[in-house]
Amino acid sequence: MLKVIAQDFMRVESIDLVLPLYRELVEKTRQEARCLAYDLFIDQKDPGHFVFVEEWPDRAALDAHCRTEHFTRLVPLINAHQRQPCIITLMEPVAA
Amino acid sequence: MLKVIAQDFMRVESIDLVLPLYRELVEKTRQEARCLAYDLFIDQKDPGHFVFVEEWPDRAALDAHCRTEHFTRLVPLINAHQRQPCIITLMEPVAA
Fold this sequence. Notes:
2 copies of one chain form a homodimer. Chain A has helices at 15-30, 59-65, 69-79, and strands at residues 2-10, 37-43, 46-56, 82-93. Chain A is an alpha+beta fold and 96 residues long. In chain A, strands 2-3-1-4 form a 4-stranded antiparallel beta sheet. In chain A, a hairpin with a 2-residue loop joins strand 2 and strand 3 (46-56). In chain A, helix 1 packs antiparallel against helix 3 (69-79). The radius of gyration of chain A is 13 Å and the shape is globular. Chains A, B: This is Quinol monooxygenase YgiN. Chains A, B: One of its GO terms (molecular function) is monooxygenase activity. Chains A, B: Residues 2-91 form the ABM domain. Chains A, B: Keywords: Monooxygenase, Oxidoreductase.
């Protein structure tokens, strides 16, 4: 299982513009056959800090997600409002 | 709902020492009545970068977690192996 945390840092004045884009990205991504979880959160201390918490069965599913129509169309529109580069962390569960 | 990402940065030479402490912390925290999720991951690119993905019903549940016997005993033992301070992000879901 592949867990992903993707942290976006948006200009605060752009939040109203990016929220509909984020919502479409979440809705369409959750329809991908191999998406296990794709949830979006906002940092309580920074309204421009958006955090995706994702779960994929494997790296191939994540790579396929990054090639979808919705990803390749929406992510550049979202990233136009970045104030700093996103941070993407790919992780594996700690064995119990 | 309160989502938490807690990122620990451990010295790589300490990983074998902290893993049993982390495992006990996860096991005991999951037994807390108000813990909704408490999962631990390792960054694929940095074996000393441990990431908790947590879910609590509210801030009071998180505060109670931080006062438990297992938290107050184990976290200082874990933090003795830190190479840099942890980063804790408290978040709320983006409304659909």
